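Predict both folds.
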Amino acid sequence: MCDFTISQSPSHRYASPKPELFAVSLALPDMDEVGKWPRSAAIFGASGGIGRAIAETLAARGCEIVHVGSRSGSAPEGAAFRPFTFDLTDENSIAETARSMKNAPPELVLVASGVLTLSDGTGPERTYKRLDPEKMAQVFAINTIGPAIIAKHMLAFMPRDRRFVFAALSARVGSISDNGLGGWHSYRASKAALNMLLRNFALETGRTHKQGVIVGLHPGTVDTQLSEPFQTNLPEGQLTTPDEAAAMLLDVMSGLDADDSGKVFDFAGKEVPA
C-alpha cells in the first residue's frame, strides 16, 4: 500500500473527459446525477487510516449509505454510516456481510485492508534468507486471500445492468515489470498475486456485467500506521495525508469505466504496469 515513489506532477487522468461523451447531445450525462456517485458504498477495512478517510470523504460528498466494516465493528459518527463486523480470515463473516447487502448492493465496494509489518513486529524481508513460511502465509492471508474472498461474495450480487466499481488497495511494488530493487518478498508477491486475481475477476465478470469495473489502487505513500516505520528520510512532499489520498482515489474511481477494468491505477489516475 506504499512504495515511496509518488510523482510530483500527477496527470489527473480521471479529469479528462472521454471523447464519446461529446459525440451527440443525447450522450451527455444527466446534470442532476453529476457528483452523486456513489450513492452507496461498502468499505472493508474502514478502521485503517485510508479506509476511514475514504468513508468519511464519501459521507462528506453526499454518499447516502456507507457500510463501514472492521473487526471491531466501530464506525465514524454520522447518519450515513452502517457499521458491520468482519474478519479477513473468516469467510463466514464475509459471506454474511455480503448477504446483508444482497437486496441493495453498493455501487462501490472497496477493500482497504492490508499489512506490511505483522503484529509481532516482523517487517518486509530484505533478503530471501529471512523468508519464513508462516509469516509469508500471514501476509498472503491478509493482502491476497482476504480480498479475493470478499470479491467472491460481493461480486455475486453486483448488478448486470449498470455500473459498479470493485476496488482493492494494492501497491506499485506489486508490479513485476517495475521491480528494479527486489526485496520485500512476501509483500511484493502478495500484491502481485492480488493484481492477477483482480485481472482474472475483471475478465470473468466482464462477460456478464458489461459496465462493471474491477481495479487495484496504488494510494502512494500515505501517513498511516502501515507506512510509519518507513517514513524516515522521505523526500519533502512525498508523504500524503489519509484525507488527501482518499480524495484523489475517489476522484480516480469516479472516472473509470469498463475499459479500465482489470488494471491497477495510482492516486493520480495513471496506470501501474503489470
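Second protein follows, with its predicted C-alpha cells after the sequence.
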Amino acid sequence: MILLSLPLCMFLLSNSGGRASQASEGNTGSPGDTDAFNKTCLSCHGSNIQLTNTISVTDANGSAVTSYSPGETYSVTVTLSSTGNPSSYGFQLVSERENMETSNGFTNPSSNAKLVTVGGSRQYVEQNGPSSSNEFTVEWTAPAADQGTITFYSAGIGANGNSMSSGDGGATANFALTPSATSNNEVSTTLVNVYPNPSSDFIQIDAERVKNLQIFASNGQLMQSNKELSGNEINISNLDNGLYFIQFEADNKFFTSKFVKN
C-alpha cells in the first residue's frame, strides 16, 4: 500500500514517501511480500480512479526484452495510466526469483524514485513523495549467473489530492524475465582463488579477462558491479567489515567465491 497524502488507513502514519521507507513493508502483491494483511495500494485506495499499471524492460539499445543475460544492465519502467485526472502518483517495485527471494540489483532510480532495503535483504524501489509524473524508471543489473525466471512486481496509485484514501485508484502488475538462450554458459563448481583473504583494502582474483563481476553482502544485497576489469585487482576499502560473495565471468564460464573484509 502506498499512500500519497495523510490518510488513516490501517496505520496512523503518512505513507507519501513509500511504504518500504516509512513502514518497512512491501505492498507490491508479490509472493515474497510478508505483510500480514497482504496489502497493496488497492487495499485502501479502491478504484474510484481507473488506473492501469504497466512494467516494461529495455536493454542498453532501448529495445524491449522478455529475457535477461547474466551481468547485463537493463532499464525498468513503471507507467501508471489513468482515465481520470490524478493530482499525483506513487508506486512500489520489487524483483523476485522463483523461490520468492529478491534478486535485488536495482541502481540509479529516476529523480522521483528511491531505493529502500527492508529487513536487511529485500530491495524495493518506490516514490520519493507525491509525483506529478506517472512514470518511474530504475536500472536493474541481472545476476552474474542464470537464476531462472525473475519477476518484477509493482503496485501503483493515482491520488486525487483530498488528503484521504477515498476517491483514489490503485493497480498492480507483474512482468517476468526468463534467462536468455545464450546465458546457459558453463558454471564453475570450484571456488576460484581470491587473495589476500581476509583483506581490508584490495583483493586479487586468480583469473584473467574478468567481466560482469558482482559482489554481494551475506544478506544478498548487491554492493559492487563491474562490467569489465582492467586487471584482476578489486578495491574493497569502501565495504563494511563482514563476509561477501563474489560472482564473475571469465573465458565464457561463470565463477563464484567468497571473502572476508576486515
